[in-house]
Amino acid sequence: KRGSRRANGGVPDGKQPTKTDYSRWRLLDERGRQTWHYLRTDDEVKKWPQSVADKYFLGLPTGLPDLKTSTTPLQAVNNGLSFYSKLQLPPGNWGCEYGGPMFLLPGLVITWYVTETPVPESHSIEIKNYLFTRQHEDGGWGLHVEAHSSVFGTALNYTCLRLLGAHAEDPRMVKARGKLHEMGGAVYGPHWSKFWLAVLGVFPWSIVNPTPPELWLLPDWLPIAPWRWWIHMRQVFLPMSFVYSKRWSYPPTALTMELRNELFVEPYEAIDFASHRNSISPLDNFHPKTWILNLINWIFVHLWIPYLLTKSLQQKAEAWTWKLIQMEDANTDYSNLGPVNGPMNLLACYIQEGPGAYSVRRHRERMEDFLWVKSEGMLMNGTNGVQNWDTAFTIHAVIECGLAEDPRWKPMLVKALEYLESQQTLENCKDHEVCYRHPTKGAWGFSNKDQGYSVSDCTAEAVKAILLLQKIPSYPNLVSERRIKDAIDMLLTMQNDTGGCSSYEPRRGSELLEYLNAAEVFGRIMVEYDYPECTTACISALNVFRKQYPDYRAKDIETFIQRAVSWIRSDQRADGSWYGAWAICFTYAGMFALQALRSMGETYANSERVRRACQFFLDRQMDDGGWGESYKSCEDGVYTQHEKSQVVQTAWVCIALMEADYPEVEPIQKAVKLIMSRQLSNGEWPQEAIEGVFNKSCMISYPNYKFIFTIKALGMFARKHGDMVLQ
Ligand code: LAN
């Protein structure tokens, strides 16, 4: 028990309340920009009443009525929609918590601390609540909410809590420290935690493996040039390399001095930090560094930086990275690509332009876009929201149920259409070739237009939703033919040479770049890969489009689809399954792949591969009729049963089997019954296990999936097999 004294962020012990008043939180959605506000005065509370959605997100009673018990799938759908429609936000989109990763808040809180950004008390209280709620029994935190404790999770979240005023002698902190020390202390953390702790001034920079900005000066033709890396890696590397080049650290404070005592097993002065550059706990070492990367790091540390790097070259590199940072900021109005580069860009602006700069102010405002409040406290979302994605999927689900013209749901869908219309990116961003951005004209991103990064499947699902709705005569034509064609043009740029599609851009570099993966905690992050999810979304949007516009780029579309479907076929494993990259896991990918095959007329009756895929699922159906897959499937690449069936995965498999025209109704009916039996009397489905994933190892929540896919599966069933009485 070292370093307790007085460091609780300047807040006198016991003075800060431990909970905010949840009846005062409000979610504001301004054309898709979502921010939470804590109302201080009763007057404000009166003027801005809490909505049902606010209450639901905060875990407060919603007051929504019990509904007539459903006995058929369509009744269950209507009950589900009756609940879910109340969560639609005023601009027409859906939103939700998008948590899971446990390494995001620390980056933000450290950035707030070192940029001396005032943190509202409401935020600091609820962030602490969230972190304490999510602390494991053993005292630590993991990479994501369900993961085992690691040095990454524990060292950073411990630090985050201390910066927000948690007392070192709080029993929960003592326990966390105990766990951290048991794992060897913070010197065994991965690269990103070393970076953040160096910024905070708790580590010297000598423990951080180099991220030299000079790499940005490499010629574009070089196979390792950073513009070829997966967008999230290069956009994080960018500000990281800038800050690294400056070796910028916050000057010591009483609190950071205490952290130097708390985070390590040995006394700070006795640690040879440089020798710990490559130290990493086996609990964190999900993706060990290769010998090539270790050699490159060695060359940087022992030759390049001390002997070869000239001042002028370093300045040139810093100037160019700074320019690229500014372009990223300008192109996204400081929203930035995501929750890791957002705080880092704020820090870079603070270093370069000082605390009073507009860039710093605007970044500070934008940090709010990532925060979310729920019953457990305040967390940082994996993006600035899920707006476009969940809204498009919701539209598809209602259409699949055959309810798009039902007067009960039409106003909801018109609003959703209006929302999607408002979020299409109409232009490429300024100087997009200079800053290596893929064209965005006609595209949709995952969240909103401010962020504005084109994503293949987000564009595909959005344009498909629009095409399907606008085809119905009673719906308004909000998105013009020209704009729809722009979206299609964009999609047609997204195919890889393999025929498959990636997430943000077609692949720009070789898979061999994975040898340079320095993150240690993530796998398959250095370049874009082909994904069955993204590929299917493109196929299916193009198919819908060409039915309505048979003359537009017909040949390009036909070639695209043929190549994409062959890629889907080639990606099937011998056991009949497909590995999913963006949700857990084989159940998710199988649903997409079978949809793609169906669009080419391949079903159970005529295709051996479809039969194999169905068998794969049937062999894994649980006794209660459901499917349940653990996140371990993503890490290990082997289907791993969850201990309990999950409504979301059950729905995915039902949809998959129906896409395949699986001939027997019995297994699907059993699953549909299970989905119905899990529905509550107000139409809601309760939250079960986490649904999503990225980079193989990090899980992320998609709480709306328990509405979207259950509703879709039940609706499809009713349309295919009849709306029979099932319970
Ligand atoms: C997302 C969220 C959405 C997701 C889908 C659209 C579902 C997918 O089909 C394509 C990829 C995409 C857009 C995606 C990519 C990676 C993201 C942005 C995330 C999983 C959300 C969070 C994650 C991001 C990388 C988190 C920050 C962490 C880093 C390692 C930088």
Automatic annotation (TrEMBL):
Keywords: Isomerase, Lipid biosynthesis, Lipid metabolism, Repeat, Steroid biosynthesis
Enzyme Commission number(s) of this protein: 5.4.99.-
Domain Squalene cyclase N-terminal: 118-329
Enzyme class: isomerase
Gene3D superfamilies: 1.50.10.20, 6.20.120.20
Any one Pfam family match given in the protein's UniProt record, by short name: SQHop_cyclase_N
Coiled-coil ranges from the UniProt annotation: none
GO MF term list: lanosterol synthase activity
GO BP term (any one): triterpenoid biosynthetic process
Family indicated by similarity: Belongs to the terpene cyclase/mutase family.
Region (Disordered): 1-23
Domain Squalene cyclase C-terminal: 389-717
Taxonomy, superkingdom: Eukaryota
Species: Trichodelitschia bisporula
Annotated GO CC locations: lipid droplet
Keyword Lipid metabolism: yes
Protein name as catalogued: Terpene cyclase/mutase family member
